[in-house]
Design a protein that fits this description.
Largest sheet: 6 strands, antiparallel
Number of helices: 7
Strand content: 25-35%
Number of domains: 1
Distance between the termini: 24 Å
Order of helices and strands: EHEEHEHEEEEHHHEEEEEHEE
Oligomer: single chain
Radius of gyration: 20 Å
Structural class: alpha+beta
Helix content: 25-40%
Amino acid sequence: MRAYKFLSLEYAVDNLVKHRLKIAQYEDMNDPFELHGAAVSNPMYHQILVDVIKKHGVLCFSRVDNEPLLWSHYADKHRGCCIAFEIDQSVRLEPTISLDAPRKVEIKMPRLEQFVLEAFESGRLPIEETDAELISLSEDPEFDEITKAVLLSKYSGWKYEQELRVLIMLQGEQQDGRLYFADLDARIKPVEVLLGVRCTAEDEQKLRYAANRYDPPLPIRRTTFAADSFEIVRTSMA
């Protein structure tokens, strides 16, 4: 499947040269309502979910490359670029769930209820990420579905992003400083670079240097404003 990533020049060059993508962590994401679009009915259960979710990160993509708001918000006001990726079907791309108001997720999972009760009675809240039972719970398919409802739910005002997410468990080997990165490989592979309308000739050369580090080199295309719609369209090869 083709999916798109909008980036400023600095991050695009760094990611392409190092063959990696930054994994977004939930506490640093743009939407202040992340993890609040869906909440479980019992606040204690929600805390447990958040303890599990802290161990998740996200690779964020869009279905589209022509939305001007995406270029404005994520590609440095059209001065950056959009990288097209070919994503293998083995990678689980999850569409975000659009909501007009927060919703409650009912939990009917005796194992989770027992875990929360024991944690509450023993004073173990918040649960440590290394807790063996918490790790075991996070691997339960039913718990996975509940967790994804929280991880993917977003206010409908963000619908223009047409967002797709790859949910990733954070691992120590992914860490560089305080950030986490996923290596690019045959499963998530850059295939094209689109230049923002305001991308300068100097910045184009920096992107070309990064694109030429692939075999074959990634094609680079220019973009412009559509004549009869509020869209960004491709023009010639750069």
